[in-house]
Fold this protein.
Amino acid sequence: MKETVLSIKQLNIETKDKTLLNLPILEIQPGDIYGLIGESGSGKSLSLLAIMGLLPKNIRASGTIVFRGDATSNELIGASESIFRGLRNKKIGMVFQEPMTALNPQMTCGAQLLEALRVHKICNKSEEKTILKDALLDVELFETERILESYPHQISGGQRQRIMIAMATMHKPALVLADEPTTALDPETGKAVMNTLINRCKNTGSALLLVSHDLQIIQKYCNNVAVLRHGVCLTQGTASDVFTTKKHPYVQELLDAIPSEKRKPVAGVDSMLFVSGISKAYKTKDSLKQVLNGIHFELKTGETLAVIGGSGSGKSTLASILTGLEKMDSGEIVYKNENIGKKKHTGIQMVFQDPYASLNQNMRNVDAVSEVLCFKGANADEAKSRALALLESVGLDLEKANAFPHNLSGGQRQRLCIARALAANPEILVLDESVAALDPLVQKQVLDLLKNIQETSGIIYIFITHNMEVAASFAHKTLILNHEKAM
């Protein structure tokens, strides 16, 4: 029998007054692919942070986490920083959930990959550029020179995620921890990236601990699965047991929440939003890169447009133009017979793709929402009351209301951003991958909430997504972007 690469026993993660996670046992063999599923805040990401020794100072862990790699064994709970420096990225790689936060905005992608390579001193300088290019090619980033010279904000969300995957797997570690590695990727790219991760693990005998809310990915790739909810492990075993023969009721709830119905069209209302001929190009080192070319659509009051496309196809650029954060090269945006393409329109709000980067880290969660309400004219008491109601309506635990964004999980931060955008009572809401980080059950709850708001207020949604099933169930119309062209 192979010796386990990771052995977790009686792991407790807690704050001063609350247990956040209790995981009795989890063992991973070399080459295994182990899945962790569960709703936001259930403890999935905390498990990975505990393994990496990256838990916040106000959170403590007890129990045992034993990592075995290269004929050495290390107890990770209580391990010194010098031990972790020798393990991180070299023997244990990690793909973080929010690449924009994990990457340094002041360093090019090439410089950050080079730093990750040099810290463990495994090659000569003459070999470095070849290794970096090969690492990018392995994660389907073929414009290697451009990517290496770009800063994180100059590439798409999906491309940033693949940079993180390249960085985590560069040293072919014994264990890879992947926290929602395909959240920002379109299905085709996500499949390619997952295949890359799986093949690397198989070729090197490495293990993969995969956190994901995508049940199809978990079912397809994982040998074993653990299901977490509210910090408790509800069930674990082989993927077959968890999803079929020994299915827990909560797992059935998650499966039932996967969208299947198409939304009916809006009838009997005149179009209110007209977008015509939007084009946008960015300067590169040697030329112009056309991102959008002649985008057209129109929407009625209470109608939703799904914008679908691969990473780098211009979805987020379109969102930035609509909200006045980017200037288009040509085209018109007309809302209620007013040309709003030349100014920032206060009736348009946006939920950004990266929630952590869009939140003020020094502001309490409830204050992030009440600030908007105060700006709209509410007094302090009224604003706080309405802010709490909004947070509750998007499914955020009110115990987190007075905490800060770094105290939330990725999915919880996304719900906070949705509540903040709704606080402005917008006429048009642009949602950039706004439910991508949510498990199916919470995703359904949030989308149902947005539908109800739309039916009573007539708000227009522009819904950017990679998920065709979600788009079909939530949107009335679809715009497919395919690298410069609209289909």
